[in-house]
Amino acid sequence: MFAFNHFNFNVKDLDKSLEFYDKALGLKPVKVTDNEDFTLTFLGDGKTGFRLELTYLKDRTEAYDLGEVEYHLAFTADDMKAAHDLHEEMGCICFENPDMGIYFIEDPDGYWIEIVPDGEYMAEHTK
User: Fold this and answer.
1) In CATH terms, are 1-60 and 69-127 the same topology?
2) For 78, phi and psi rounded to 5 degrees?
3) With the C-alpha atoms ordered 35, 36, 37, 38, is the resulting torsion angle positive or negative?
4) Which residues are catalytic?
5) Contact between residue 109 and residue 17 where contact means Cβ atoms under 8 Å apart
6) Domain 69-127 top-level CATH class
7) Which value, in Å, is the radius of gyration of the alpha carbons in the chain?
């Protein structure tokens, strides 16, 4: 009856966010809706149908209050070492849990994104 479609992050600087998501995760715009007051940019990974929607409110000048950021989006990486090396070089790693083999990166607006190894991680950690 239902299926995942997209997840939304509101962003303060659309260009900065687009650059980050392209470099950090290889996400590319798949649909853009530009209106007078806002721009919606849907990013895709080229592998799945899931999309990340970036909402840019053109008159917004202040940072978004993310509360305690007790939520996150997760991505699998088929090469954790290469992914970690890239994110370390970018300086965006904000938390690591070596025992679980995962880490988190932080985007320009402060949203956390979990990086997990491809394959068995979800089966092992969601039982």
Assistant:
1) yes
2) -80, -15
3) positive
4) 114
5) yes
6) alpha beta
7) 15
